[in-house]
TrEMBL record:
Gene3D superfamilies: STAS domain
Protein name: Solute carrier family 26 member 6
Parts of the chain that traverse the membrane: 93-118, 173-195, 248-269, 281-302, 338-358, 370-394, 406-423, 467-496
Keywords: Coiled coil, Membrane, Transmembrane, Transmembrane helix
CDD domains xrefs: STAS_SulP_like_sulfate_transporter
Thylakoid as UniProt keyword: no
Lineage of the species this protein comes from: Eukaryota, Metazoa, Chordata, Craniata, Vertebrata
GO function terms (MF aspect): secondary active sulfate transmembrane transporter activity
GO CC annotation: membrane
Domain STAS, chain residue ranges per copy: 520-692
């Protein structure tokens, strides 16, 4: 790469302080009042109402302009391919949610139709998702444990599990928490709170999904080994579950274990072959669909349920269910879970949606996505669906098979509708171990995210710490508690970084108006008599004290000690003068001259310099405030004290690079008065340096060369 050509430039202008800049640039004092802003926000006109309505229902905007010839075939093929994937994934993820498999199919139908109408992303495939399902499962199993549905058996000491009543209660709980999470998303979208996802950084999301995948794997071990461990909830529940599973390994159902192993090996091999064949075959091979068809046929022919005790899916009712009102009495016990579902579901969907939007050059409305997901979950909850988000695997298939709009999602919903009405009952003999195996294989991508630790170690160690802590917190706690703790830890890292900024003294690059830290460059030299202090972070209550300490250390001037020393000298001088005056009155007139001379000698002693302070005082100190984007009351007070204390010590303090919000905070904080004006503020470091070099003159320095 050729070296960039250096273009010389020469500017001649006056040295400008803040008042000068305001005058030259003609600062505008026009401000819109809060009343006017509110009036403008609620003002409704015909065009504005039309725009708001169309933005609320994007379908009415893009569907009339749908390019049928260009997109129809691709969307049709993509929709069918994704719809086929919805069948095994919906049934498998229903196990994670601890509800019958058919409700996974419902969750792959109703929400998708709603998103088709209100969503703005053209390429994501919404529906069941492993992380959301395991979060739902933690709620359903906590509020409806097996122990609540044990009924007496025929024998005196025997009990049996009422599976029908348990499943009905868990479906009601899953639908209710889904409805509530949808309401949260809808409300956040209506108040334009789409930015809430900014608190979910990419390392946090990836670590959280990895930890959730571990929860998923552990929750499915019981289906792979044919055991029935006790349900644990709360902190360390994952550890207790693993210990319980290990204790029950002696009760493993061999038939179930064989089915699991064979299915996992078959799925992994088939997916590898499918990946190799993808170069020649434009449509992906539906490996999972073929797997559940073969497994269902084998289970039916060999009667695995009766002969080997392998647990199967069971009855799958045909048709659709009527809407049911949510259980209002349960809402109070699941508020935290619902909010966690709302945030996680939205965070995953908008992150993936933005990736595709950037790749294919269109815009995804973050607030409208909240509304779309909120309606999908709240309406879906009325039809006994559980919370949905988007799936990376299905979205990649949708894109790779030619999907170019939300029409592909609608077609996939129609595929599920056909399955619900006609085909679903054919899978009643499908072993649950096969669905668990499908889940394991689909989690391969999430397990590969452990490689993030190595890459983050090289690029950003703080992000790596966030990743590791998110994983640990989510594994040790439930997914909802783990998410809250992870967000809190992530925010704390930001706070700590503002509390531990880099403080430095700036020097001038020879022959330029550029100033850099003197410790980072060999040719950068300090300006004689002028100290330029720079902090890499903003100034607020959490780091104000450290800012002052660093200023004292870097400038080598401890103002507190300096002022204390001067006060002691002054007090000592006053005491000696008073003593000398009393002595002078008692002495005779003939010794008046000697008394006066003694007093003069005393006064001369008191103004002696302090070798540790006065000899090293700079002429001026310039505080570079360009990184400061806001000032709270503590920050304003800190700057006021710095200016006052150094001023009393004979050192003039100037400020440069102040943003408008910082200046306004200083004005509101009564920083300025008749003696302290904006003449101590400068737009750049160089302006302040030139002003100091000319002597603290009130006149504008003309013809300064930059």
């Amino acid at each position: 790469i050729a070296e960039m050509k250096r273009v010389p430039y020469h500017i001649q202008r006056d040295v400008l302080d803040e008042l000068g800049v305001d005058q030259v640039a003609e600062k505008s004092d026009f401000k819109i009042s809060a009343k006017e802003k509110l009036r403008e926000a609620v003002r409704c006109t015909g065009p504005r109402f039309k725009s708001c309505f169309l933005s609320f229902v994007p379908l009415l905007t893009w569907l009339p302009r749908y390019p049928f010839r260009e997109n129809a075939i691709g969307d049709l093929i993509s929709g069918i391919s994704v719809g086929i994937m919805h069948l095994p994934q919906g049934m498998a993820y229903a196990l994670l949610a601890a509800v019958p498999p058919v409700f996974g199919l419902y969750s792959s139908f109703y929400p998708i139709l709603i998103y088709f109408i209100f969503g703005t992303s053209k390429h994501i495939s919404v529906g069941t998702y492993a992380v959301m399902s395991v979060m739902i499962g933690s709620v359903t199993e906590r509020l409806a444990p097996d122990s609540d549905f044990m009924i007496p058996g025929n024998d005196t000491n025997s009990t049996s599990l009422d599976i029908v009543s348990r499943d009905a209660e868990r479906v009601k709980i899953a639908a209710t928490v889904t409805f509530l999470s949808g309401i949260f998303q809808l409300l956040l979208g209506l108040v334009r709170f789409g930015f809430v996802v900014t608190y979910l950084s990419e390392p946090l999301v990836r670590a959280y999904t990895t930890a959730a995948a571990i929860h998923v794997i552990v929750s499915q071990l019981k289906y792979s080994f044919g055991i029935n461990p006790q349900r644990y909830s709360g902190p360390l529940s994952l550890i207790y579950t693993i210990i319980e599973d290990c204790a029950l390994l002696g009760q493993t159902n061999i038939g179930t274990l064989v089915v699991s192993i064979v299915t996992i090996i078959g799925l992994v091999a088939a997916k590898e072959l499918s990946a190799l064949a993808a170069r020649k075959i434009p449509i992906p091979i539906p490996v999972e669909l073929i797997t559940i068809i073969i497994a269902t046929v084998v289970s039916w022919q060999m009667d695995l349920k009766t002969e080997y005790g392998v647990e199967v899916v069971g009855k799958i009712p045909s048709g659709l269910q009527a809407p049911v009102a949510p259980a209002v009495s349960l809402l109070g016990s699941m508020v935290g879970d619902a909010f966690a579902l709302a945030v996680v579901g939205y965070g995953i969907a908008i992150s993936l949606g933005r990736i595709f939007a950037l790749k294919y050059a269109y815009k995804v409305d973050s607030n409208q996505e909240l509304i779309a997901l909120g309606l999908s979950n709240s309406i879906g909850g009325l039809f006994n669906c559980f919370a949905i988000s988007c799936s990376m695997s299905r979205s990649m298939v949708q894109v790779s098979t030619g999907g170019k709009s939300q029409v592909a999602g609608a077609i996939s919903a129609l595929v599920i509708l056909v399955i619900l009405l006609k085909i679903g009952e054919l899978f009643e003999e499908l072993p649950k171990a096969v669905l668990a195996a499908i889940i394991y294989v689909n989690l391969q991508g999430m397990m590969k995210q452990f490689g993030d630790i190595r890459s983050l170690w090289r690029t950003n160690k703080v992000d790596m710490v966030v990743w590791v802590m998110t994983l640990i917190l989510t594994v040790l706690f439930n997914p909802d508690m783990g998410l809250a703790a992870s967000i809190a830890f992530s925010i704390l890292t930001v706070v700590f970084r503002t509390q531990l900024p880099k403080y430095s003294i700036l020097g001038q690059v020879p022959g330029t108006d550029i100033y850099k830290p003197v410790e980072d460059y060999n040719q950068v030299k300090e300006i004689p008599g002028i100290m330029i202090f720079h902090s890499s972070a903003t100034l607020y209550f959490a780091n104000a004290e450290m800012y002052i300490d660093a200023l004292y250390e870097k400038t080598g001037v401890d103002v507190a000690k300096l002022l204390s020393h001067k006060k002691k000298l002054e007090a000592k001088r006053l005491r000696k003068e008073k003593k000398a005056a009393k002595k002078a009155k008692k002495e005779a007139k003939k010794r008046a001259k000697e008394a006066v001379k003694a007093a003069e000698d005393v006064g001369a002693v008191e103004v002696g310099p302090d070798p540790d302070t006065d000899t090293t005082l700079p002429q001026a100190i310039i505080l570079d405030l360009s990184p400061v984007n806001f000032l709270d009351t503590v920050g304003v007070k800190t700057l006021r004290n710095i200016y006052k204390d150094y001023g009393e010590a004979g050192v003039q303090v100037y400020f440069c690079g102040c943003q408008r919000g910082v200046v306004e905070s200083m004005e509101k904080g009564d920083f300025f008065n008749e003696k302290v004006t904006k003449s101590i503020l400068f737009s750049s470091v160089h302006d302040a340096v030139l002003y100091c070099q000319q002597g603290n003159s009130e006149e504008v320095i003309q013809g300064t060369h930059l």
